[in-house]
Structure formats: structure tokens, C-alpha cells
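Thread: Modeling a multi-component assembly for a lab meeting

Hi all, long-time lurker, first post. My supervisor asked me to bring a structural picture of a complex we are working on to next week's group meeting, and I have zero experience with this. I have the sequence lines for every component (1265 residues in total). Could someone generate the structure of the whole assembly? Inputs are pasted exactly as I received them:
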Amino acid sequence: MINKPYNNRAWLGVLPVLLIVAFSAVIPLMTVVNYSVQDILDFNSRFYVGLDWYRETLQDPRFIEAFGRQVLFSLSVLAIEIPLGILVARGLPKNGAWTSVLLILLAIPLLIPWNVVGTIWQIYARSDIGLLGVGLNELGLAFNYTSNPTHAWLTLIAMDVWHWTSLVALLAFAGLTSVPPAYYQAAELDGASKWQVFRYVEMPRLGGVLVIAVLLRLMDSFMIYTEPFVLTGGGPGNATTFLSQYLATMAVGQFDLGPAAAFSVIYFLFILLFCWIFYNSVMVEDAEEPEGQRRD
Amino acid sequence: MTSVSRWVLVAYCIYLLLPLYWLMTMALRSNSDITGQFEVIPSNPTLANFAEIFSNPVWYQAFGNSLNYVVLNTLISICVALPAAYVFSRYRFLGDRQLFFWLLTNRMAPPAVFLLPFFQLYSSIGLFDTPLAVALAHCLFTVPLSVWILEGFMSGVPSEVDEMAKIDGHSFIYFFFRIFIPINRGAIGVTLFFCFMFSWVELLLARTLTGSVTKPIVVVMTRTVSASGLDWGVLAAAGALTVVPGIVVVWFVRKHLVKGFALGRV
Amino acid sequence: MLRIQNVLLNPGLNCGFDHDFLPGKMTVVLGRNQAGKTNLCRLIAGLSTQASGDLSLHGQSMNNLNPQKRSVAVVFQAFVNYPNWSVAQNIASPMVAANADKAYIQYRVAELAGTLGLGDLLERMPNELSGGQQQRLAIARALAKEAQVLLLDEPLVNLDYKLREALALELRSLLEASDTTVVYTTTDPKDAFTLGDDLLLLDQGKKLQSGAPLAVYQKPTGLAGANLMSDPGINTFPWTALEGQGFSQRGAVNDSLANEEKGDLGGVRPEHLFFADRAGEDAVSFKLQVSALETSGDETFVHGMVGQELWVVRCPGMLNVQPGQELTVAAAKRDILSFGGV
Amino acid sequence: MANITLEELSFTYPGAAQPTLLPISVEIKDGEAFALLGASGAGKTTLLNLLSGLLVPTTGRILFDGVDVSEQSGSQRNLAQVFQFPVLYESLTVADNLAFPLSARKADNGLSGSDIKARVAKIAGELDIEHLLKRKPKALSLFQKQLVAIGRALVRPDVSVVLLDEPLTAVEPRTKWQLRQSLKRLQQELGVTMIYVTHDQTEALTFADRVGVMADGNILQTASPQEVYEHPAQEFVGFFIGSPGMNFVDITPGAGDNVYSHHGVASTAQRLGFRPEWAKLVKGAVAPELSKVSWSGTVTLNQVLGTQDGQPVGITTVMGDAGELKVRGPITGASGDKVVVVLDRFISFSNEKYMASHYND
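Re: Modeling a multi-component assembly
Sure thing. I ran the full set together rather than chain by chain. Output:
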């Protein structure tokens, strides 16, 4: 695909997408921004309040706590899933019958509806009927994620690792299998150690794929809602109430539109930032390696 | 290094399978049996819970409702995304990069942000509690997702194929439907799968935009959580049933699965 | 007859060129990489390109006809076939587009597959074929269109040299009989002689000269044109090297036109040089310091220095000449080209 | 540097019906430049992978200086390989790339940091790529990258053999001959045993002291370029080398004395082979001298390839009772003329094997 001709008639192809997505994105987003700068008592009495709601939200201690918890959650999840994913990918056999079986096994958690993941872990970790819960208690740790915040946190992280590490593993595996066999052969002939093979042959190839994995995981974990809602409902207390959870309660529950709208806009801006990083890292046209044409 | 990673792989697979095993055992035991005594291997498994789901209208209607809007959403997304992805992969045009990026921001947008406006929008145009409402709302992420994945696959097909068709004398329509789409059937398969999964899985918007008439399975499952006197067996069975379609379909799209997850960027 | 007028092969150029392609004949467009060969093909076929120019076929303008409407068929450099269609469907594609009737398509596909050695591969998919077979399939499809103009853009460059040799001759016999106007682009002067009834020489988007292969070979209009017609290119020398060999600059038999690049210069083609054991009085000789040797069996290329210039001598058969030797090498006076400085 | 012996070496891919490589016995002397020439699918890559330790032989043995290495890995055989496209460590500079084979084996070759630097500087000097030492591979052209890859293969002073798998494939045609020349110069100067795999006859005949011509998983002939060109051991070798290759004509010499027996052609000979430049064209329908082997026919195609002394020179294709023959020389006749192809020299074959060379004195 060396040259893409410039052709504005191409807009015809893009119009339907624009209409549909604009209908479900632009109009609602405008209403959110609209609400975020007004105080609305009822339909016909609303007046402009400028950035008050933003200031209020940013100073709202519950927002800051929820934001802190969200960042802690996302970082801890990433810190586990990325290295674990690479290790799992390196453990996978490159070809042979076992490869496709293992790939499908790894893909299963990614295909389970998010709420069912919450349900599975809810059943699995309960201290009365759960294999994990009962097991841990047998070992003498008074484990109860419904009452103890730390236990709740650990269970949440364990669940997310269970749910999403496979994505990192599959992406890393795709990166590893894109290494032409000649590189491994050259390294072996050089007498490179296993560590040197990983650092000088595999890592340069993994770089691009890992950026995608990190950013995808960061964005998805940053807006997580369903699994914590099912597992802990944000409890005990609001020990595990993250941003989406807090915004959902504010927006639907108490109906104070202004702060909820401001909160939404702030939240969306964060996601926009991650998107921009993801877009620039993915769309850079890195020069493809010429594989040499197989002649016949 | 590889021996360590081989051990990590084995350990992780066990870690992966245990909860699934537990879900299956729970689904095969009646609620009283579960709360009765703790067993690792069920002594008297029964299929009562599954029977309950298939007989109780609340459950199977919920499955039906979910399927309703999910299929609708998937069809809309794929029909709309195909021409757009073709155009993104073949041409440069005014604002193409910005539009492509804007689509990405919608795929990544937290549903919570759109909760409030959607609720107002759809109720104001009288679409509340209809499958179309949730289908259209989910288009917010399934359409961008489809465009990105399809564009990733389509830019793998050399543009000489398009030019060859032109020179052979085929009209664009003939080329698009009889040559281009068959070449990309693998990509379309995996895109359909991802739209289906994303729409099937989403809870927040589905719960907000549906009332009693079109209550989807995701809502039924989470609603029973908060009620006291919870029937674990039935819940586990329902969970197991929702896992099945994923596993069945994954076999067909396994070749392109990873590329799909990476939004076509691998 | 295909006529192209004020053609600008890339936007940077200021003056376009015209050319008439001999109807029913095979014209070879010879030029280095990036000379604009592919842009020319895309312009004639009507595909998107930066090149611009007026095209007319049998008098009617083709400028604003889309590729579907132009009676032009193309074979690309990379073997392009429809991956989702079988060999038979691939060949039938242009006829299906022209909605010819079924029986005729059936017959024509079998006939074309036969002539191009794909007879027993009709049900196979393109990716199951070898490189040579894939390109034969692309050629069969191009012929199936029965267009008045057939463009072949360096079709053989990705093939093994033995396959290239065979396919070049096959193409020649296939296209000689037909009354299609064929345009064949290449970087290899050998193709120019094997396939070309007429030649068009391109250099950085500009037309150097055109004409029959032998005429262009013997009467290059400049250094660039002369270089294109020999592989490796022309050996050049300052006129002073010919002192006392009874040779006047302007007296050269084939006094070619002035050339702007390097000023007063003499040139001799590698294949016109021979080792000096039989240098008669109608020849000139040079001192060659041998630096390297290349042989392909039927020919040997002797690389060496003559004064400050790097020369190549191309002689038949195998030679046992050692690097480091100093030899005298000669060429007939009539083979000396002179490029007077402007 | 090692002397390499292959004894009845063959290979069958698991699950394949017949062997990809038939039993081969060849001896490659220490410091020799050996070329494996064959079309795609002739089995040269399989043989290369057996030599590099990637594949284990089905039958036969590989000996490096008399030691059986058939089961050993590539690194145990202490060899190096240059691939079709440049294989470099993207994250390391050129200098580190060149030093890597030495530093990675520092334990057993006992070289100090300064020895390695000196060795790298020497190799960089040989390939005149000193100005690239500080750069990363990304910043180099394809030609330069392949030069560095060759440097990596030569940097180990004790390398047993260097295998080259069609190293010029990805290089721009115009610059191929420069890379060929530096490779040949380095081989002679460093005296490293090199095995060069290619399907291009010019690369093989230019580079090698001896050429092994392969077809259908077998080495048909192993001889010097001159020998392989002048006296092909099999008809395929005569056809494959040379462009166009050898002409072949079926003959039945029979017992009595005839033009064939005058040239010492054995009665059991079945075919004659002659290269286009070993024959001359004579105008007219009848052979001038009966003492020479000749066939009459009509000219069907004139391929001009240039001029000699102002006269067009090239390949003339003649269609006659002996089939289609190609003759290289001055183009005299136009297509349709009656001509006679007179042989100056030819080779007699019986069941496709070389019997003898025959000359017209």
C-alpha cells in the first residue's frame, strides 16, 4: 500500500459512520457539556454558572478519593498483567498442535461477558460457598472480601488479572511470532544466551505490540464498571468505588446534573489523553523490514 | 528463561481454569445443596438450574431481549463500517486522520459519561425501552471498533487488486461485493464477533435504556445479585450459558482473534 | 494507433514529451528505476498517478475515460491475481465484466490456459501456484480482455533468470501474431533487443529518444541514452587518451550529438572492446589495469581502470585473466562514440 | 577454518513421501569458495540447513575437519551464516553488532575487550564501513546493512565456515556486482571456507573456486566454473548454465563409419549437445564440408544483442530437422532464410550423462 491517492469523493463512504456515531456521541456530548456549565433546577429555569461545577467536582473529596482509587487500581493491574502476559507468551510453543489449543484456552476469559466474570468471581471467592474463599479460610486467613476492604481490593485485582492478562499474552505472542526465524538462528550461531536472545531479538519486536497492550489495558481499566459493580458493588463502604461507579451513582441516583456532567467531561478528557498517545504510537508508519522476495 | 516462562504458563492456565470449573460445579448443584455443605466435587449434580432457566420466562425472555438488540447493533455496525473502512484503507481525504482518531475516542469513551444524555435523548424521541435504543446507543463503540478492525485487515489487501478489477472492466459495486468482501470474509467474521461480544456484554447503558419490556440478560443476572435469598445455582447456570456462545465462535475466528483485539493494529 | 502528447511523468518537470506507439507492434520502454516507467503505464491505463498528458487511441481521446472504458489491459510487476478466485475464474474475469456468453468464456479460458501452460491448474487457487505460474495467470487474464493496448510493467523482474528467459520468448511468440499495441517496460537492454520492434528511452521522466533498437544502439543522442542500451553502461574516456592513434575527434564515423553532462568525451560500449592481440590500424587501444572479474559462463566481464575511469570489458566465453594484470584493450574506430561538450 | 566432508548425506521431511535431498557425497576443502547453484526447489536450502545444524540428516554424516558434527547445533559447529535479507540487532550500533559474536563467546575464546575492538576495527576496515560504526541499523541502506551482516559472519577469527543464502536477493541490481567483489576479495584475503547458495549463474561462477550444480535434490556435478561450463557432466547442467543454455540433438551413430565416428563419437552415444557459441551459420541449403557435423534449417528468430565491428551480433534461432537450435554470432540471415548450422565443437551424451568432448581441429 505505497500510495493512497487523495480523493475527497471518499467522504461518501464515511458519511453513514459519521451520522450514526455523531447521533450517539456528538449530541449527547454537547448536552453533557451544556449541563456542566449550568445550574438546572427544572426545565425552564437554568442559569449559567461557568466552571463552578468543574471546580466543585475537582475539590469534591469523594471524587478525589475515587480518582485515587482508580489510578491505584489501573496501575497495579498493569504492573501485574504486562510482565505476566509476556512470560505467558514466551512460554507458549511457537507452532504445533498445543499452540492453537492453548491460544483458545487463553482467549476464553476475554470472551466471557464482563458481568459474568463478576459473577464467576463472586461465587468463586465467597468465603461461605467459594472454592477460593473456603480454601483461604482453611489456611487460617480470615478471608472475606465483602467485609474487609483489603481483601476486596485483592480479589478485584485477582479477577482483573484473571480476565485481561490473556489479552497482553496474545498480543505479546503475536509480536514474538512476527520475529523471522532467521533472527533466532543468527543469535544461536553468535552463541547468544537466552537472556541476550530475549533482550536483543525479541524485545525490539515486542516494543510496538506492548505499547498497544499497555494503552488498551490502561483505557479499559480506567473506565471499568461492570465487574466491580457485580463483585463488590463498590463496597465495603466505598473502598472499591471507582470513577465510573461514582459517576453512575451521581448521574442516575441523585439527579444533580451539573456536577455529574462536569465529572463526565473531566473523565472523558482523561480518556482523550490516553487515546491521543495510543493513536500516535500506533499510526506512526514504521518502515517495514524487507523480507526479500521469495522467487521461484 | 523459557523453562521459567513454561512454568508460568502452566500455573496461569490452572489459575484460569479453576474459577470456570467452580462455575460449572455450582451450575450443576441446587441452591440448597450449595449452601448446605461445601464440596469440591459435586456429589449429586443436577440439571435443575438449566431447566429453571429454560422454563422461567424471566430468564429466556431476557436472553431473547439481549439477542434482539445485539443482532440489530451488529448488523447496523457492519453495514455502516464496511464502506468507511474501505475508504480509510484506500484513500487520503480531507480530515481523514482526525476522523479516524475521533472514532477511536468514541470506542474508548466510558459508557458512564453517556448515561445521562442517552437516557434523556432516547426518552425524548420516544425510543426508551425499545431494542433500537440500546442498539443505537451501543453503536457508539461498536461502529468505531468495526471501522478500526476492518481498516487494519483491509490495508493488508494490496490496492493493485482494486486496480486490476477496474482494468478488467468491473464496476465498483461488482468489485466491492464479489471480490473485495469475499477476500476479507475472515476480517468481517472477526469484526461481527467483536461487535456481538461488545454489545452483549455492556451493562450500564443496557440497564439504563431498558425498562420492564426489553430487560436484557445482563440486567436480570445483576438484579438477582442485590435481592436477598439469592439462588446461586441458577445464577451460575445462566453465567455458564452466556460463556458458551463465546467459546463456540472463537474456534472460527481464532486465526484473526489477536488482530481483532488489537483493533487491527498488529 | 496509441498517441500520447505533452506527457509529464512527474509534476516537477517543465516540458512534456509526445510519442506515437506503432500500432500492432511491441514497444519497449527502457529506463532505470524511478525513470517514470510505471507512471507512464498508470497514465495510459487511467489509474491514479501524478503523471499527466493527452492520450488518444485511433484518434479518439482517452483522457477522461475511466479504466473500465479504456481498451487497455495491464500486467503488473508484482503478480496480481484475485486471491479468492480460482485460476479459471481469474482468466474469465474480463470476459465476465464484458458479459460475454458462457460458452465463449468457457472456450476462451481453456484456450488461453493451454497456451500459457496452466491447462491442468484451472481449479487451483493463485496462492498454490509458483511465481512463474502466477505471472502466467496474470498474462492470461490480460490477454482474455482482448484489449487494443496491452501494458506489461516489468513483468519478469521477480522471476528466476532461467524462467525470465523462457517467458520472454514465450511472450514474443504470443504477441507477435496479434494486432495488439504492446508496451513493455524494463530496465534490461536485453529485453529491448529481444522484444522491441520500437524503443522509447526514459530518463528521470524525460524522453531521451525513440526508434528501432539497433538504430538507438548505434546512434545514441547522448550519454544517458548510450548508457541505457548497455548493461553495464558505457566506458568513457577523455579525448586526450587517443593522441597519436590517428584519430580526430569529429572524424568518428558515428558522430553522435553533443551531450551536456561531461563535456568533450569519448565512449565505447563494453561489448565493443576486445583484447589487443589483433588491433589493426582501423582500431584504437587503451591500457587497462584489471581489478576484478565476473563470469556467467557464456560471457566474462573484466573490470579495470583506464586512466581515472572505471571500465568494464565484456567478452564471450571464459577468460583466465588475473586481477592486477595490465592488458591493452582495443576497439574498432567505427565503434567509438563521441559526446562533444555543449 | 574447516574442511567439510559430506558422506551419503540425505534428508526427508517428516511425513514427506520421498526425500527432498538424495544421498550426496562432497568434500569442500579448507579455505575454499564453494557455490551451490540450482533453481528454486532444487533442494539447496535444505542442504544449507543441514550444514547450519538447523536440520538433522536422515542418513549420512557431516564431518568438519574429520569430526562428525551431524548431531551438533550450529553454534557448536562454530559456523556463521548470512541470510537473504540483513539480519542485525536493531537496538545495537553497527560496532556492537560486529562485536556481538565475539563478546557473546567471551568465556571460551578468552578475548579481552581491546582484542575485540581491534578485530572489529580490522573487519570494518576490510569492508570500509568504519564511517558507519556508530550508527544504528535503521539509519543504513540495504546495501550497507548486508555489508555489516557479512562483517558479523567474518569477525570471528576461528569461524569454521561461512554459509551465504542468496545474500544479494534484497540488494539493488545495479550495486550487486560491488557486493560480489568485496565478498570474493574478503574470501581470498581471510582464507575463510565459504559456501554460497544461489540460483543465479553469474554469482556462482564469479564467486566460487568450485560449483556444485543441483537439481531435484541431487548434486549433478561439482567442478570448477570452467569445467562446469565447458564439460557439463549431465545434460541438465549444460542447459541450466549459460543463457540460452546448450542445444541438444538426438543422434543414432550406429556401427559404421560416419561423420560422428570421425569425431570419435562412441556408437552408444544418444544425444549431442553444443553451446550456441560453439556453432557457426552458413548461408544456403547444403552443408559446405561434409567432414563437420551440421544440420540445415530455416531462420525463425533473430535476437540482436548489440554490434561487433558495426555488424549486428546476437542469437539466431534455426528450425530444422534437428529441432530448434540457437546459434550465437553475427546476425547474417533474415527470418525465413535457408541456413546450415555447422558445429565447431560439441559433446556427446548417453542417457543424459557426459561421454566425451569433440572438437573440429
